[in-house]
Amino acid sequence: MREGKFLKNNMDKWKQIQQEPASSPDEMARQFTELVNDLGYAKTFYPRSKVTEYLNGLASRIYLTIYRNKKEEKSRILHFWKTELPLTIRRYHRELLYSFCIFLLFAIMAAFSAAQDETFVRGVLGNAYVEMTEDNIEKGDPFGVYKGTDEWSMFLQIALNNIRVSFMVFVSGVFAGIGTVYMLFSNGMMLGSFQYYFFAKGLGWPSVLVIWIHGTLEISAIIIAGAAGFVIAGHLLFPGTYTRLQSLMTGAKNGLKIMIGLVPVFIVAAFFEGFITRHSTMPAWLSIGILLLSLFFIIWYFVWYPISLSRKMKNAPKLPVSI
Length: 323
Fold this sequence. Notes:
By secondary structure, the protein is mainly alpha-helical. The protein has 2 domains: about 5-70; about 95-305, no CATH class. It is about 80% helix and about 0% strand. It has helices spanning about 5-20, 25-45, 50-70, 75-90, 95-115, 120-125, 125-140, 150-170, 180-200, 205-235, 245-275, 285-315. α4 packs across α11, α5 (about 95-115) crosses α10 (about 205-235) and α8 crosses α9 (about 180-200). The chain is elongated.
């Protein structure tokens, strides 16, 4: 094979390996095996070519990463949360953006529809819930719904419900993403209607201070679960050089990693809703502090830190180790 054709056939793959760090040890091992095979071919037919030097450097970099990861196996859990999961999230930031935009669009549509038609909120949230809330407003306790059950029962009930809803959003991605879009539509409509209802009653700011104590993490988890659903859909619809089944399995594995990363978010959101949201008369500064800390964590761990870590790994010095 001519060197030019060799480059044309493989350059896209090499660039992807160089620019997108592997999200799992299995993927890293596969990349390393492919590079070693390509390097062996290049050394045989183009021993003094720059492509041979390039492949040697790229393979060496992955080799050193594998060696370093072997020493980290004793802290596998720490490695997962500190490195593996953030790199997986970074790989699918585009899907995360799609999920956020779709959810926000549906929430805005719901709020606009509720402003045009006063029966819209009842159609989305149900007559029973609206009447119960109106009754609580008349009693002077508009957020009494969060006080109807003891703390531990509510915590467990909300945690299980959050996990159920988010995993439904994730698993629905297997239907070419249509199921995930529908779940984002359903939850976005409920949020937009719910929030508009309180603003229409003159309780907009109090509702933000109370509901978004737990809602910041809860809604963020649904959006991130939507991104995990789009990961499955993307691998199903665009398998690339893999078989559709192989690509689907990879997408499901990477999406499941993201869902595992959401488990602490589910639990903390349920704790806030079960134990803290019920104290609707807490000082505004405390409520705002909890809300902002939750928002900061989501942006830091799921957006900023993955970008920073990815850049750091890409800019790591390439040592001239010969394979």
